[in-house]
Amino acid sequence: MFMTTPVALTIAGSDSSGGAGIQADLKSFAALGVYGASAITALTAQNTTGVSGIHAVPPEFLAAQIDAVFSDLAVGAVKIGMVAQLASIEVIASALRRWSPKHVVLDPVMVATSGDRLLAADAIEGLRSKLIPLATVITPNLPEAAALLNEPVAASEAAIESQGKKLLTLGCPAVLIKGGHGQGSESVDYLIRAGGTLALPAPRVATDNTHGTGCSLSSAIAAELAKGADLETAVRNAKAFISAAIADADRFSVGHGHGPIHHFHRFY
Questions:
Q1: Catalytic residue among 79, 215, 239, 259
Q2: CA-CA distance, 60 to 69, in Å (whole number)?
């Protein structure tokens, strides 16, 4: 008798340095016991110090990748990261409607850890109107939440909760606003749903090795959902995984900028 293998699909950009994007997503899936498939939206030339080039994958070929995966693999959850351009957003939204995956985790990636912009300005409205309504949960950081709403970055718990509730009106049932860009001894993420807000604190780790943190958290949530966890459990488990990966990040010495987190801290 064969056990069903949990499968997650990441739709995102490739990071040539291996710390973020598709590479981080596949590492997170593997570390959490989930088989990972991928559909690449864009190639980036980047390292730990910055992004030097972006080459968008033609929309029709992006669609072909997604359809190839869904037509053969039993995808339990989808993670969406860097979408790069409006045409890619339209293709992804069409594919999600075509295949109707049970869970969609949308990480509205706009800017890399290095500060480089990863999303064309005209694509932000497409993100709001076409992808967010199809998501199970969206996972913006504080600047991304503010950008989606054309508001200043929230500086208090009340402001964060207010922005989360406004994001819910875009059509998704849950928003996880990440507190990594905040201040203080704790990094607090807020899971905001119609029924209320759940604060999820973790000790803030003093490290420069944070490359790919957001990608890895959203893909860890997708991995947990693919394994059958409910959303709150998936978020809690994913946050514990990422917190440990950040805490052990300095065991790596990779690159000269924002180094990667340690996805496989449980193993070596």
A1: 215
A2: 15
210 is catalytic: yes
Active site residue 215: yes
Active-site residue (options: 41, 44, 113, 213): 213
User: What's the pTM value of the predicted model, to 2 decimals?
Assistant: 0.94
Joined together, the tokens standing for residue 121 give 């300005």
**Residue pLDDT tens, the chain, 268 long:** 456 899 999 999 999 999 999 999 999 999 999 999 999 999 999 998 888 999 999 999 999 999 999 999 999 999 999 998 999 999 999 999 999 999 999 999 876 666 666 677 778 899 999 999 999 999 999 999 998 999 999 989 999 999 999 999 999 999 999 986 556 667 899 999 999 999 998 887 878 777 889 999 999 999 999 999 999 999 999 999 999 988 887 787 787 878 888 898 888 8
233 an active-site residue?
A: no
Given the residues 27, 79, 178, 239, select the one marked as catalytic. 178
Q: Is 227 a catalytic residue?
A: no
Catalytic site includes residue 212: yes
Q: Which domains does the chain have, with CATH numbers?
A: 7-251 (3.40.1190.20)
Catalytic residue among 48, 81, 210, 259: 210
Strands across the sheet containing 137-138: 50-56, 35-47, 7-15, 77-80, 104-106, 137-138, 174-177, 186-193, 196-203
8 A C-beta contact, residue 34 and residue 7: yes
